[in-house]
Amino acid sequence: MSDRLKEQIRAYRPVNEQEERDKELILRCLETEKDIFTRENHLAHMTASAWIVNEQRTKVLMAYHNIYKSWSWLGGHADGETDLLKVALKEAQEESGIRHVKPVSEKIYSLEVLTVDGHVKKGAYVSSHLHLNVTYLLQAEETDVLHIKEDENSNVAWFPLEEAVAASTEPWFQEHIYCKLNEKLNYWNLK
């Protein structure tokens, strides 16, 4: 268990009720659930996402996710790693091909508990479950060559901020996650 991550989550200041409630649930699960950093916990497990912006913070890098049939942020399962910033950076590179990516800050950018509907992955059924997600704000170079990760996505592209939200076909993510992440850029741009 990562005491450092728990301290970071405890110190995180939620910006809305969704983040307040999700922070409480994530901390409760970190305290009570076994195998929370692996997929062995079939009810809920830790994940990390990246809201990847260009240097000017006018565009977001997104991938077209094969399972959800939607443009979405990049990220993935902790798979035993308790340093979720490391997970977010690794997933960003693996899912998009970008090489010049760095954290805008090592602080948590956002918290979410995400529902995942049952689906088939690599020929096996995966039951519905929760992703206890920590999001980090990353910055990448638009000039990096982009590559898809065929087993997860079928396209990767930069979108202007508003178009990134509109590109998603998942209304809950549009309204509760992606709009929030874009709005937070105003605060982070002041730093």
How would you portray this structure in words?
- There is one protein chain.
- The chain has 191 residues and is of the alpha+beta class.
- The chain has a single domain (3-189), classed as Nucleoside Triphosphate Pyrophosphohydrolase.
- It is built from 5 helices and 10 strands, in the order ααββββαββββββαα.
- The chain has helices spanning 3-11, 17-32, 84-96, 161-167, 171-189, and strands at residues 44-53, 59-65, 70-72, 74-77, 101-103, 110-116, 119-121, 124-126, 129-140, 153-160.
- It is globular.
- One of its GO terms (molecular function) is hydrolase activity.
- This is NUDIX hydrolase.
- Belongs to the Nudix hydrolase family.
- Keywords: Hydrolase.
Keywords, separated by commas or semicolons:
alpha+beta, globular, eight-stranded mixed β-sheet, 191 residues, NUDIX_hydrolase_dom, 31% strand, hydrolase, 5 helices, two-stranded antiparallel ribbon, NUDIX hydrolase, Nucleoside Triphosphate Pyrophosphohydrolase
